[in-house]
Amino acid sequence: MFGLIAEHESSEMTVKDFCELYDMAQGTYYYWQKKYHASLEEKRPSSPGGFRLLEVEQSPAFEEDGLFAEYRGIKFYRAVSVDFFKALIS
């Protein structure tokens, strides 16, 4: 049956016409199509949890000494909140 499902998916026939050609009920076709796609999913390698490995490059904004930002001579070595910057400017 999987061969028939694969044959239909590579053709341009409607399900109705395909089932009539092979004297098959449409319900049977859809049952086997569901099993066919489930078997394909089992064969695919899956990533754990649906996550992908990302490669992160160091941003050119960070210097070697770990400087995050500098404002009027004040150096920040880690991220600070926006509220902190607002209070600093005012």
Characterise this structure:
The chain is mainly alpha-helical. The termini are far apart. The protein contains 4 helices and 2 strands. Helix content is 47%, strand content 7%. It is rod-shaped. The protein has a two-stranded antiparallel ribbon. It has 2 domains: 42 residues; 29 residues, no CATH class.
* Quaternary class: single chain
How many helical stretches?
Answer: 4
What does the radius of gyration come to? 30 Å
Return the domain count. 2
Instruction: Please give the share of residues in helix.
Output: 40-55%
Query: What is the mean pLDDT?
Result: 79
The stretches of 5 or more residues where confidence is low (pLDDT under 50) are none
Shape: rod-shaped
Order of helices and strands: HHHEEH
- Total E-strand runs: 2
Proportion of strand residues: 5-15%
Strand ordering within the main sheet: 1-2
Structural class label: mainly alpha
Terminus-to-terminus distance: 74 Å
